[in-house]
Amino acid sequence: MKKTSKPTIVLYLHMHQPWRVRPYSLFEVGRDHNYYGPDNEQVFRKVADKSYRPMLKLLGQLLERYPDFAFSLSITGTFIEHAELWGKDVIEKLKQLVKSGRVEIVAETYYHSLAFFYDSEEFERQVRLHQAKIKDLFGVEMKAFRNTELAYNDALAEKVAAMGFKTVIAEGWDNILGWRGPGYVYNAKASKPLRLLLKNYRLSDDIAFRFSDRKWSEHPLSATKYFDWAKEATAGAPLLNLFMDFETFGEHQWADTGIFEFFEKFVEMWSKKGDFQTISEAAGAHEPKDTISMPETVTWADTERDLTAWIGNAMQRESLQQLYSLLPAILKCNDEKLLDDFRNLTTSDHSYYMCTKYWNDGDVHAYFSAYESPYDAFLYVSNAIRDIEYRSKA
After folding, report:
1. Which of 49, 84, 121, 220 has a CA that sits 20 to 30 A from residue 291's CA?
2. 103 Cβ partners below 8 Å, 6+ apart?
């Protein structure tokens, strides 16, 4: 385990693409079982050109340039399916990075689902599917875990510890931390030993959300300014946990904002002062500061940092409850295609698109949505669920 006395950045990037449901009509139920349209290919190819390829290239260059540079990735099973169809070079580049020994892959549910909150056994099945896919593709065993959207509570900690994971990551939300800070390793509240790393949401979101915001008082954000903030954050704590979507680089923050140059310069500056560790390295190299308990679910989404981004209105709750109610019948069918279609509908993006929040949170949901309105999302997904039910009975 890599030990260090230097202030350390734990960089974690999340890669995901859902299978977006096309405008699927009620009149197609029982007739056409293909729920996914050409938008999925178009979106993946666009994001691959804008984000995946240039950022993977830059990360590879930084690994070659700085011997202490390291980071962690989570890669959903649905992302891998997209890449295997339309971006095999993306998969090959990921393999090269992992072979460096300084890139850790973090486990999660294969389908980027909220299954833990609906069916614990299905949650474990989806995690095991993800483990098998990553082992087959990259040849690695995963020791760290992240739940979808960093949705975390004490019950989740208990479950993943029993499944054999050593570390879990979550949101470093002020209401939970109180007087404590996110720059330490903590013990998770679980019967078996489980380390907990918490996101520094302020400094993470400065890059992920505010970097190109011209109304932000700190715009433009230079590498020098951010370096000073990072030094300040680690003046009294050993870690700075920067967790964000991989697509931050090039897709959410376009290349013409200077995001790639900013990141490259910041890594150069930090390499002269501090260190980088993967999630598992940091969890093993630092003694826990305290035990953190989260009885209620905390996520990294929206101002509430709870599950309301996915279950905040009646459409979302009805859709998810109806979907998961079909699982026992689907499992009895012994139909792998039906089960895969069901699981693709458990992907959290579908209920996220149904969110009807306003103001800044609503703007974020609208930006990510594949539909003109939350009601369209509900209609098309509901029709697909009806077809799943029809197939399970047929």
Report:
1. 121
2. 59, 63, 70, 71, 72, 73, 97, 278
Given the residues 81, 108, 122, 149, select the one marked as catalytic: 149
Q: What is the CATH number of domain 8-292?
A: 3.20.110.20
Q: What angle do CA 274, 170, 228 make, to 5 degrees?
A: 30
Coil vs helix vs strand at 183: coil
246 close to 73: Cβ distance less than 8 angstroms: yes
Task: Choose among 36, 24, 121: nearest CA to 347.
Answer: 36
Q: Give the pLDDT confidence of 332-350 residue by residue, as tens digits.
A: 999 999 999 999 999 999 9
DSSP assigned state of 177:
H
Amino acid 360: pLDDT = 55
149 is catalytic: yes
User: Closest by alpha carbon to 200, among 170, 235, 226?
Assistant: 170
Cα distances from 33 to residues 28, 30, 85, 281, 385, in angstroms, run 8, 7, 20, 45, 10
